[in-house]
Amino acid sequence: MTQLDERDATDSTAEAISAASRGSAEYRADPYPVYACLRESAPVCHLSPPHGVDTYLITRYDDAKAALTDPRISKDMYAAMDAYHTIFGDSSVALDDNMLFSDPPKHTRLRRIVNSAFSPRRIESLRPRIQQITDELLGKCVTTEPVDLLASFAFPLPLIVICELVGVPENEREDVQKWCAVVARTGFSKADKDKLAVAEGALRDYFAELIARKRENASDDLLGALIRTQDEQGAMTDGELLSTLWVLLFAGHKTTAYLIGNAVFNLLTHRDQLEKVLADPDLLPNAIEEVIRFEGSVENATFRHALEDIPMRDTVIPKGCLVQVAVSSANRDPEKFESPDTFDVERKGLQSAHLGFGSGPHYCLGAPLARMEMRIALTTLFEKFPRVDLVAPAREAEWLKVPFPAFRGLERLPVALDPTQL
Ligand code: HEM
Predict the structure, then answer these.
(1) Does the beta carbon of 248 lie inside 6 Å of ligand 1?
(2) What is the CATH number of domain 3-421?
(3) Where is the composition biased (Basic and acidic residues) (predicted)?
C-alpha cells in the first residue's frame, strides 16, 4: 500500500465508524458497505452512539459467533442497569425481565417454561390455521390498484398467529400492534424516549389486566398454560410472566413481518432467483435461509455487555462496555460465505451457518414458527399472484430509518398483485 492508499483507508474507516456511531441516514438505507469496510479494517470497533454508552461493534462472522456464546459477554440487564437505564429508561426495564435479557440459570429456567410450545411438532400442528389466515388475508387484497404488502399481509399474518397462540383477543390486537410499532421505531431523542415510555406503560397495564382476566377465567392458550405453571409450580414471578408475554408478542411478529417483506422484495428484484424457486418449489426452504443470510430482518443482536476486559482481534473490549453483534454483517463475511453480496437461492450449507436467528443459548426460540410462516406466506402469495411485481423501481425502496439498527426492514412494500388489472 502506498502512503496515499493508507491514508484513504484510514479516512474511510473513520467515516464508517462515524456512520455506525451516529446511525447516519445513508448507513441505515444501505448498511452493507459500512460493514464491509469495518470487517476489513476495524472488525471490533469502538462506537460513540447518541445514547452516550460506550459500545463495541463486532462485524466479522467468527467473532460474532464466538461473542454470542461467550459467557463473559452477558445478557443480564440487571448486571448493566446503569447503561440499560440510560439507553431505554424505566419502562423498558419493567418489560424486559425475561429470557432475552438474562443469563443462566435464570435464562434456562424461563426458556424451559415456554420451550415445548415452540417445538417443531407443536408448530407443525399450527399449519392448517396459518394457511387459513394466509388465504383470508390475501383473499382480501385488491388487485385493481397497488397494495402495501407489508400493511395488508406481512404484518397481520404473524401478528394474528402469535396473538392466537398466546391468547390476545381479536379486538385488542390493534392496540398491541400500535404500541409495539412505537417501541420498534424508537430513537434516542427526549421526544422518542417520552413516546416509548407511554407505549411501554400502556403495554404493561394491558398485559397485567389480560393476565388478571385469564387468571379469573382459565383459557387453553399459551398464556393460560403459563398462568397455570406459575400458580402450580411458582416457576415465575409476576414480572417475569408479564415480560415473557411481551417478548413472545414483540419478537414473534416484527421479525417475521419484516422478513416476509425482505423476501418478497429480494425475490422480485432478483427475477432469475425467483424463476428458480417457482420452477422447483423444493428450493423454497433454502431460498428463505438465503434471504435470512442476505437480508435478514434482525440486523444486530440485542444488547450484551462485557463482564470483564475481553481481548478480541487487536483491541480489548473493556469491562462494562456494551457489545453489539452485527449479525447481518457476519452473514456477509467473505471469509465465511463465498460471494457474500450475491443473492443465491441455491447456496449450500446455509441453515446451520447463517446467524440470522442468532447462535448459542439465546438462539431464536421462534425459528420453527418463523420458517413455517415464511414458507406458507411465500408459497401462497406466488401461487395466487404469479405476476406480482413492485410498482416502483427497487432503488426507491424505503428502508427503516431508526438510528438504532435493531431491525432491517422496509417502511412499505407497494406491489401490483396482478399488473394486468391495474
Ligand atoms: C424471521 C423471524 C425471526 C428472526 C429473524 C428472529 C431472530 C432472532 C434472533 C437473532 C434472536 C437472538 C437475539 C440475541 O441473541 O440477541 C432471537 C431470539 C428470540 N426470538 Fe426470534 N426471530 C424471529 C422470529 C421469532 C418468532 C416467530 C418468535 C416467537 C415467539 C421469536 C421469539 C424469540 C425469542 C423469545 C427469543 C429470545 C430467546 C432467548 O433469549 O433464549 N422469534 N430471534
Answers:
(1) yes
(2) 1.10.630.10
(3) 1-10
